[in-house]
Amino acid sequence: MLLVNGVLLALLLLSMLACALFGPVRLDLSQALQNPFSANPDAEIFFRARLPRVLLGAAIGGGMAVCGVALQALLGNPLACPQMLGVSGGASLGGILGLIFFPHWLLPIAGGLLGEISWAPLAAFVGALISMVLVYRFSLFHGRLHPYHLLLSGVIFNSFIAALIMFLNSIVDFYQAQGLLFWLMGSLSTRAYLTVAFIWGYIVIGFLWLWAKGLSLNLITMGEEAALQLGVETAALQRQVFIASSLMIGAMVSVSGMIGFIGLMIPHVMRLIVGSDHRLLLPASFLAGGIFLCWADTLARIVLAPAELPVGIITAFFGGPFFLYMLYREGRRKFAL
Amino acid sequence: MNPAIQTRELSFSYRDRAVLHQVSFSVESGEMLGMLGPNGSGKTTLLKILSAVLPSHGEVHLKGKRIESYGRRELSRLFAVVQQEPQINFPYTAAEIVLMGRASHHGTLALESQKDLEVARASLALTDSLALADRYLHELSGGEKQRVLIARALAQEPEILLLDEPSAFLDLKHQVQVFELLRRLNRERGLTVVAALHDLNLAALFFPRLMMLREGAIYSDGSPSEVLTEKTIEDVYGIRVRIESNFANGTPQLSICPSL
Amino acid sequence: MSWRAKITTIWFLLLHLVALGASVPSVRAAAARGPKRIVSLAPSVTETIFALGFGERLVGVTTYCDYPAAAKQLPKIGTFTNPSLEAIVAKRPDLVIGVNSATDPTTAREIERLGLKIRLISQAAVGDILQSIVNIAKLLEASEAGTTLTRNIEAQIEQVKTRVAPAPRRPTLLAVGLRPLVAVGGKNYLDELIYLAGGENIAGGATQPWLNLPDEYIVAKAPQVIIEAGMGSDRGQSARHWRDLQSIPAVRERHVYAYPSDKILRPGPRIGEGLEEIARMIHPECFAQTARADKGTRCEGPRS
């Protein structure tokens, strides 16, 4: 366990460094390091333009992967992913509405001491919370959260949200449409260390909480009845995992828009490498997710330079075929083709 | 001494369909009880209620205390269940699955201890599945899976073992093996065994006490020769049979009289 | 001249003016040719039609058509990107004018199939914009007005070119959104306008007309002028956005400007004016009124 996680941690740190060094423009690292605080272009590129992105990517990649693991356990389905819960859709819708109706408003944090936060991410988070409550209510039967209904509610909710978003897309002007794309396809573009720190704190707490539930997650994948008989309070666990994942996803989407497929691909790949024991799978997926998203973001900046592609396109580019491949393999396995 | 299991006026309905009516019985510690009855007679539901998966109208007592007063982990150390058809969609090895039976014995944040590993290994050996330890569950045959699940139940070191048609997917050799194992555990360790069974002859051979359920109520309860009568079979299952004595030990064995 | 003679002269002139004024509409009414009911599918087209003097023939415009003020009163037939086919047909136009970049070709074909006359104009480059004005004028059977209008705009452009000619090209960023930052790229008439105004579009090498620019690219290209167009004038948000990128010359030397007007964002008859306005931002020293006395920068220097 230590060995695998140690290797992954080292890879993550290396990746973060590498991604901060690579990009569409050349960077003179020595210049950057010599005068980090002066108005020095290399320093600004490294410390202000790239490093926050890389840090954010590690957090969000890890967070998405971990939520993917948790949700797959919760829904008993290795093809589940964070997008299915409906929370990310709600967050995007909230962000888009915030973008349309109050794009310029800012809320001072701690009386302006810690800077300001724009309304759009707040609206996104509120959207996430509302979706969470709605999907939860729709999936509640006899006071218990049924995985099957959760999946169904989430998917239907998402479709509905997608329709709403497309409607909004047809009535916004050109500038708002660009903002809309950000919410739908994601971007790690940020320079605010405060935001990055906040997200890191949030995600680490969520991750540690889920990791502590690792054994229970193992048991719940045995089936709900079996889990009950093996000593798990399944109703409580389902509720808690759902809420924890939703809160994490809501925060992540509020900051970086919808970045999909990480929660689907990374758990599956890591299962092949480290097995399905969640006590190992969770930290391994967290680190692997961070590595993946860092590199995806670097690709997003390089592929069509100088333009920056939304990072969700890169993850979808890898994720789509991956998903098809997984379905193919599942089919072969189940039907012995 | 409190009976291991005792129920009083147990009733249960799925929506408007009543499944169990006022079922009252008790099982002493160390007994082996086989539950019989056609599909829909309520066997599985009864087992689910006994294993605290379903709530009930009526009372269920385990070792003298109401079942609701136990915590889940406590219950998990008290009894273990072997279900009929597990739906496990994730790749686990047989060893990992059996180790999960030890979950209620060690802390949620702790890893398995040496003892846990030993118990798991012993359980696999008991069910003749040690060779399957590193194979993935989805690669195993139905019978092999069943044996692994029994091993998991045994790894819980329960006092009571509840089984739902444990021989359903097993070939004859393994069916007999499982029942012989149950009998052995019952005699050597005093394990209380309650099983829902569909094979009447095997039930009669191995279980000293049988309980026949019909449409959610107990039709008869007693030794195999008391329960397995031609009249009972005809009333409950609706088919005619002939009861004969097993040549080895005198337990009733039935032969079906097909309508020609 | 005696006072009587003066009054007579004045009355004489006034009468002539009145007669002339009164006769002009009738002259025009007698000579009214070309389409009488026009639907415009783009704000730039609406502005062009008004500029050519045929605003009163418009029977349908988009919800974004707000210049000149009279356009706001006109009936609306949908948005710039989503005009309503039914609304257009209901107006019984004898000419519909759309733009290549935005009007959906399927909608255009539908309109044609319904027997209406539709023309699409191209606005990809400054030359195209001027040509479109001429084309629209031709469709309105008022070619002279078209030529006059384009000549005026060309003159404005020439003036600006001359003014900024001696000054060195300044790397410029023209952004139309901050969050996310959407910049003008290549193959865009705005890129041309920047060039004409004496600037060098830092994203001009890109093939896309609009693109998201990562911050590192902007820092590396070190623009000396940043123009934030069409976003309303929340200077606070802009200041906060650029605050920690002081290595960018435009930020350090406070050459970040807001340009909320639509003049350059609509490829229409006001681009000449718009060009001058952005040239004043890029090369303030070349325009007498805005030359900063304290800087003492002269409008000249080696051409890069």
Summary?
Helix content of chain A is 75%, strand content 3%. Chain A has 337 residues and is mainly α.
Principal-axes shape call of chain B: globular
Please state roughly what percent of the residues of chain A sit in beta strands, choosing from under 5%, 5-15%, 15-25%, 25-35%, 35-45% or over 45%.
under 5%
Largest sheet of chain A: 2 strands, antiparallel
Largest interface: A-C, 39 and 40 residues
* Helicity level of chain A: over 70%
Q: Report the mean per-residue pLDDT of chain B as an integer.
A: 85
Description:
The complex is a heterotrimer of chains A (337), B (260) and C (304). Chain A has 337 residues and is mainly α. Chain A has helices at residues 2-21, 29-34, 41-75, 87-101, 119-139, 147-171, 174-185, 193-212, 214-220, 224-229, 234-256, 262-274, 278-302, 311-335, and strands spanning 106-108, 116-118, 140-141, 144-145. In chain A, strand 3 and strand 4 form a beta hairpin. In chain A, helix 1 runs antiparallel to helix 3, helix 4 runs parallel beside helix 11 (234-256) and helix 8 (193-212) packs antiparallel against helix 13. Chain B is an alpha/beta fold. The termini of chain B are far apart. The radius of gyration of chain B is 19 Å and the shape is globular. The mean pLDDT of chain B is 85. Chain C is α/β, with parallel strands linked by helices and 304 residues long. Chain C is built from twelve helices and ten strands. Chain C is globular and about 65 Å long. Chains in contact: A-B, A-C. The interface between A and C is large, with 39 and 40 residues.
